[in-house]
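INTERNAL AUDIT FORM
Audit reference: QA-55
Scope: verify that the stored structure record matches its stored sequence.
Auditor: D.O.
Record contents follow.
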Amino acid sequence: MKKLIVLLILIHYNFHFADIKIYYPEKKGKTSFAIFVDSITFQKTFDAIVQYKKSIENDNLPTFILVSNWLNPEEVKNEIIKLYNSEPKLEGAVFIGDIPIPMIREAQHLTSAFKLDETRFSWDRSSVPSDRFYDDLDLKFEFLRKDSVNKLYFYYRLLPDSPQKIEKEIYTARIKPSPDSLKYEKIEQYLLRIVKQKEAENYLNNVLVFTGHGYNSESLTSWVDESLILLEHFPLAFNSGGRFKKYFYEMNKEIKKVILSELENPELDLAIFHAHGVSDAQLLSSYRKARNVNENIESVKFYLRSKLRAAKERGESIDEVKENFKRSLNVPDAWFEGAFDERIMRQDSILNYNLDIYINDIRKLKPQAKVVVFDECFNGSFHLEEYIAGEYVFGNGETIAAIANSVNVLQDLFVTELIGLLNLNFSIGKWHKYNNYLESHLIGDPTFKFSNRLKNNLEIELKNFSEKDLKKFLISSDPVIRTFALLHLFKIKREKISDQLMNIYLKDPSPNVRLMALKCLAELRDKNFELILHKSINDPNELIRRFSVIWMGLIGKKEFIHLIVKSAFDDESDRVRYNAKSVIELNNSDENIELIRKETERIIANKFKYDFDSTAFYIRLPDKRRQKEIFDVVLNDSLSLKRKLSELRTFRKYVYEDALITLFSILQDVEKPAELRVAVAEILGWYSFSKNRLKIIQVCEQILNFDESKELKEEIVKTINRLKTGSNNPFTP
């Protein structure tokens, strides 16, 4: 049989150009799939890749294998474009082994949170490893250079005339374990394992969700409301025979052991982690809260010992640090004892280790979840030698794929958006295609499907959907189908269905459908969007309120002030209150400051009727001090350009309403350094929701007409495109 398979493959063997070997599909279908693999990996895992190809084609998806010593990302992308423009059209691809890694620069607005200064930090740290180079075929990039140390790293910048929004044409995934001596054995074992897993019937009816410390302001309202959203996505998990387990890090003092145990449950289908993370760890928990006086004292001692050790590592005076803490906390000398005692240091180290999950923990584990979603920073850093997601997928367990991030991410994400499609015959890749962040990646096999919970094959029916089909699905009793249909109807009709979007939000009982209606309206940024925010700020669902208050603050209109301030005081969700207080700071025009002050005083006066402590409701009024400090540096000719640029970048996060006049003056001043004006032009691109965005576009277009600086013109073109298109994802503006 083995020889027969090899013979069949060789019959279809062909050369493409000089060095790319292409193995063609054995079956026909409506779309196709491609396996890209480097020559050495292909030689060492040949049989496994062939069997993997057959398993995909058994699901009626014609599959190509493309083998080469890939010299650069362009070689790979050129083949993807050819297959996408051929029949059957390419729907997705997987990269096995050492496939070049695009490192993207000048595109941080396409991430959810990554804002590292590209001029201060090394290129490997300040660039985003991203396969959007391969799967969004409309994006335009300019090659900069190849890394001299990491041979797979290729640096590109996003061009100004490129689309400034990610909309993938295909889905992609990486099969790339740690590059140790067992790398090829891991790939082979993984591929052979998933070939068998594809043959089994597996319904998505057992789900684990974990929320870690410091996440979403530790809002229990957020934690509870998420269940209502997931109930619609995973109905089988809430029915007899299924199981839905939801953990908050404080629920158990041994939460790490609990989660490790849950991950080895053979019934587990999906695990979702909301937590902080780094490339080699999932940061689950914090030090257990004290329950009595003695435990409080021990917690303070532990804290003080850690501070002395940190001071020693930094080369600081331990005695000075100790005296500072004695004065500030009024603690005795005895509470510092044991900081450098080996026995106590070991105890403290074990306590620290037991808070989080590390790579070595996973290597001892057999994770059973078929899919793991890492709503965590850096867990998907596939460009590094070791990364958390790779250990789950290519380790000793049954995990088929993971969704994870190559850099840091924002907490206010909607990572489970449309995830219920996995129940409706959508492969993991087809679902992940809707995740349009620069940093989000699928690790593992993207073609895996859970068993379809519906009798009808929804995915096939919607493959060539018409407007008539979508309207039919829009009245489905299934909220996941309604949500999906609404998205695609919006893609077809855009502003023509603005009124319908508003009506759907007002009438649909599903939080998922309402979220999609709001997201589509947020893309339009029209009058209906601003009108509906008056309603959505009081939505029963916490996530909707959270996004609504952010949008209100970024728009910056005075009509929203009383609603934002009210949310900062009254919303039951810690996270909504946190976001309300954050966007209040941005509305720092004189008029808005006065409105915020009056509304704050009115609410506090009302609450005093019930003996509320006013300090519990403290919000910081907007002021111009931080803004003034920034401009004092930027406009000071005696200071270095480097210092000025560093200060200016603060506006990426704090899009102060009242800063625009000064930013305009710097941008228009031909006497200012070109680098400074370019930085200002880039900053203005972050005002995509601002009520003043049309004025910003007008100012930028005027400069295009007379300024001759190529670099400035390029940045202005990019900013104009960003403002006209809107943010990459309205949920993370």
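Auditor finding: record pair retrieved intact. The first helix runs from residue 2 to 11.
Action required: none
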